[in-house]
Amino acid sequence: MDSQQLRDLQAPLKQKYREQPDAARATLQAIGELDFDNIACRLTGRGASFAAGLHPLAGGDEKWACSGEMLLEALAACAGVTLCAVATAMEVPVTSGRVIAEGDIDFAGTLGVNRSAPVGLTNVRLRFELKTTAQESQLSKLAQLTERYCVVAQTISAGEAVGVEVTRA
């Protein structure tokens, strides 16, 4: 897709959202079925189905997806799509590339062994390796706009509290 095709695709949406701001708002949702026998959660969405379970360093099995890795995958996917869209819109010459999302975790915190150890990912890092002839100033702007418009990166960095509720079905 070139920059004009992207503009043509998004122009009617942008116009609609300017005229009807509420049309731009949506609630995204993920639903999982709890699997107590395997200490897992089975998710289905957009035609794909997979199960997440305990990471091997928390007593799990390699056959299960790790939720922490899934968070990093969501970050990599969102940032990757965002970078592609921004590079296309800016006409930054990129022929190929990859995105790497990493984060550190201390399972002593997750397992309650060390109450001073953090629970969750820390030092989350996102790196793009691009084949490009772009100038450094273009790459700097590309990084800035990718960070600004990546939904997952902005959600993580905002540090919003997640509300947890348990109810009877």
Description:
It is a single chain. Helix content is 40%, strand content 24%. The N and C termini lie far apart (46 Å). It has 5 helices and 6 strands. Strand 1 (32-35) and strand 2 (40-45) form a beta hairpin. It is of the alpha+beta class and 169 residues long. The model has no long low-confidence stretch (mean pLDDT 94). Helix 1 crosses helix 2 and helix 2 (67-90) packs across helix 4 (136-149).
Question: Quick gist of this model?
Answer:
This protein has about 170 residues and is of the alpha+beta class. The chain is built from five helices and six strands; from the N terminus they run αββββαβαβαα.
Supply database-style keywords.
single chain, 169 residues, alpha+beta, two-stranded antiparallel ribbon, 5 helices
Number of strands: 6
**What class, by secondary structure content?**
alpha+beta
Q: How much of the residues is beta strand, in percent?
A: 15-25%
* Major β-sheet annotation: 4 strands, mixed
